[in-house]
Amino acid sequence: MSFLNLLCLVVLGCDEQTGRSVCCTIQTCLLLSSGENRDSQTMNLRNPDSGPSASPARQRLLETATRLFYTEGIHAVGIDRIIAEAGVAKATFYNHFPSKDDLVLAYIKDQDRIGREAVAALPKRPPREMIAAVMGRISEAVVVGDWRGCPFLNAAAEYPNATSPVRQAIDARRAWYHGVLRELLEADGDPAPAVTASLLVAVSDGLLESAYLDDAKQIAALIREALARILVPR
What we know:
Layout: H1 3-10, H2 56-72, H3 79-86, H4 90-96, H5 100-120, H6 127-141, H7 151-158, H8 165-187, H9 193-213, H10 219-230
Helix pairs in contact: 1-6, 2-3, 2-5, 5-8, 6-8, 6-10, 8-9, 9-10
């Protein structure tokens, strides 16, 4: 499995042959959607400068940056290296991305887009089963290839300024994730869906990083245990 296939798994699935999302519709960090109220949750997902419709040069730059940013860190990788490995001219780079931060922002939004599309493609099921299925994706992703933690959390650590466009994009994704979980929990009859959604977001964050620091093979069991303890018994 290629690096891009792996990272697509992180953001909830993709076509393993092309590295692109298998979804044909767009609707909602990791992760997650009940498939309802999607119009209000969509965030610039039809951007003509991202996804399969982007120019070949831009796509090579973005895919190269995705690989390098995730495996080596955003600040550790310079523009010149990305240009060289993508096989484009410097003028071509600046034609698509006026600065490195613009490329980083495109990277974050692209991972967000892929994840939302993949969640939209999940088959509909009861809310509790949907929560379990979505969180189960974490355990699938972390045991494939060279797992180095959640790409959104990694990027946030390198952008401490909460007002930067990169952090705002990450925060928007987290707000979306929390909102989707809250809707699922409301549909499941949870008495405090906002609080429980915050707990599940925190658990997701911990699982994604624990898989890098500890034994990734234990994540599936930890997910089951966490849900059994957090979700209101029926």
